[in-house]
Amino acid sequence: MIRMLIVDDEEIITDGLFDVFSQLNMDLDLYKAYSGEEALDWMNKTRVDIVLSDIRMPGMDGLELMKSIRSTWLHCKIIFLTGFNDFDYIYEAIQTQGVSYLLKSEGYDRIIKVVTDAIHELENSLKFHHLIQQSREKLTTLETLAQGNYFRYLLQGERSMEELEVDFRKLGIALDPSLPVLVAVGDLQRMDLHQSFAESQETALAVKFLAETFLAERTNSLGIIDRYGGLVWLIQPTNGNGMGSGEGCARTVKFLEGQFELMQQACMESMGHTFAITLCADPCEWIQLNDVYDRVRSQQYWRAGDGVQMVQTVNFERVETAAHSRTLREKADSLAMYLEGGGREGFLHLFNELKETGFDERGNGGPFLLELYYTIALLLLSYINRWELHEKVGTTGLMQRDMHKSWQDNFKFLQNIAESLFDLRLSVERNRAAAAIEKVRSYIDEHIGEDLSLVRLASVIHFNPSYLSRLFKQESGVNLSEYIDEVRVEKAKDLLKQDVLKIAEVGVQVGYEAPHSFTRFFKKSTGVTPLEYREMIWK
Questions:
Q1: Torsions phi, psi of 93, nearest 5?
Q2: N or C: which end of the chain has fewer CB within 10 A?
Q3: Which residues carry this modification: 4-aspartylphosphate (predicted)?
Q4: How many CA atoms, within 13 angstroms, populate the side-chain half-sphere of residue 61?
Q5: What values do phi and psi take at 381, rounded to 5?
């Protein structure tokens, strides 16, 4: 979803443009600000893709705002609204890439056309086949695999800074071992039965290479593929800036949230794949890497909904997980990947394929079948132990093969347990999604007169705005903005029935500072003005 911010110190212009674009079917996530300073506050809270701004404003003017935007969001398109006497401003602005301008006198049709062009430019820029190729030239597959192996080596125990420095230099890792890192885990949701292992690895490598381009704007990073086929990023701001626990780190985290959202869109446009991201907002010392990686992966498992294109930010105090071993038998790695990722069809397909290879020509089981049974049983038991599911999925007989009459019964028993685990996971995801949406609804009801922007609501449940918008529609059947409008209308009706507040005061109570905006909204929703509604009620 493209996010656009409208900025003008004249309220009637800002509100008018906001209303015009709100009524168009352009799939825009709209915000407005009445000064350059207020616009900058928005830019510090979330990624913004298009800024439609007056160029001459009191306080921070458009040019100052442009410089601040360029220091954070390089991809952002800036469209300046100008008067006939603003040539000096425009001359400086048009020297900057991604900036265009138009006269305020040109009318709404022209403004809509310029914004539409900017949207198309952004969408086209997300088709990054050429960037993937450039990234492949910068980092070979061999280096990537070596770095992935090294990451697993780092997870095995504490390493000295001197050892890290030598290893980083030899492996081409552009990170500083004396500084902490931010850890992000990506879940590639691409469990395609027809995709070979090589194709899966190629997909993961393509996403990793693509990330090099997005994250390079302000950070140094190491992206690797973990043993489950997922992606892990270790990230430091360029030159180590912003790795404290204060405002600098928060800005880096906001930058990463925005860039990961763009990466998700680019992957969908370029490769038809998507992934979920869980990012730890707390800087991690190298000695903590093993624990933090486990915690972030655990938090991704306990997500709400299916996680498609989710960017979830977590802090240590919000992460709840027990320390369980991640080690599984080597031959079960592919099955573990499907089980961990919720890939039921992939798991069952591979399960049946492995089972069939264990029988001899006469249909009898051999030594491999015995090993396979206990490998899969141990995998399932480890999963049940890790997520403490004993009361929900029984383990009686799991490690006792001779409890069943035949090998077919043995593997049917294992399959039933696996399917129960997939069913349970799906149920838990749905319940968590429902709980998250109910929390958003409650917040809306309790704060109907306050800021109910998508960015604000997303912060309530610590999701990224795009994921919240999609999840709310998926769970509720209506768009989030439509639900907010419904709540506002019902609240306004209740207040108008009481005949205590003035109509303008009712508008403020439901989030409309400008009386004319409230009147226009209410009439569009009900067919009558607030005054007409009150008169009908009190006749």
A1: -65, -40
A2: C
A3: 54
A4: 12
A5: -65, -40
Alpha-carbon span 296 to 280, nearest angstrom: 7
Angle between helix axes 161-171 and 141-154 (nearest 10 degrees) is: 170
Indicate whether 147 pLDDT > 70.
yes
Tokens of 528: 């009558």
Separation of alpha carbons 364 and 362, rounded Å: 6
HSE (side-chain half, CA atoms, 13 Å) at 518? 23
- The first and second tokens of residue 27, run together, are 């799939």
d(CA 536, CA 102): 45
Per the CB < 8 A criterion, the answer to whether 147 and 171 are in contact is yes
Mean of pLDDT values over 20-31: 92
**Contacts of residue 181, Cβ cutoff 8 Å, sequence gap at least 6:** 175, 234, 235, 236, 283, 284, 286, 289
Q: What is the pLDDT of residues 451-469, one digit of tens each?
A: 999 999 999 998 899 999 9
Say which residue the tokens 């398109």 belong to: 77
CA distance 511 to 449: 4
**SS3 (DSSP) at 179:** coil
Dist. CA 202–CA 225, nearest whole Å: 11
Instruction: List, in sequence order, every beta strand (DSSP E) within 49-206.
Output: 50-54, 77-82, 99-103, 182-188
Q: DSSP 3-state helix, strand, coil percentages of the chain (rounded to 5)? A: 60, 10, 30
How far is Cα 188 from Cα 231, in angstroms, rounded to an integer? Answer: 7
CA–CA dist 130, 132 (Å, integer): 5
Helix, strand, or coil here: 81?
strand
Over its C-alpha atoms, the chain yields an Rg (Å, rounded) of: 27
Which are the contacts of 37, defined by CB distance < 8 A and separation ≥ 6? 59, 60
CA separation for the pair 299, 319 (Å, rounded): 6
Q: What does the pLDDT read at residue 134?
A: 56
Three-state SS at 234 = strand
Which residues lie closer than 8 Å to 194 by C-beta, 6 or more apart? none
Q: Report d(CA 520, CA 528) in Å as an integer.
A: 9
Cα-Cα-Cα-Cα dihedral sign, residues 342, 348, 349, 351: positive
Contacts of 201 (CB under 8 A, 6+ apart): 225, 229
Q: Are 126 and 271 in contact (CB under 8 A)?
A: no
pLDDT value of position 220: 93
Cβ pair 91, 63 in contact under 8 A: no
Alpha helices, DSSP H only, in 332-453?
333-341, 344-357, 367-386, 407-446
DSSP-derived pairing of the beta strands 219-225 and 182-188: unpaired
Determine the pLDDT at residue 319: 39
Say what percent of the chain tops pLDDT 90. Answer: 44
- 205/50 Cα distance (integer angstroms): 30
Provide the 3-class DSSP secondary structure of residue 102.
Answer: strand
Beta bridge partners of 313: 279
The answer to whether 244 touches 252, Cβ cutoff 8 Å, is no
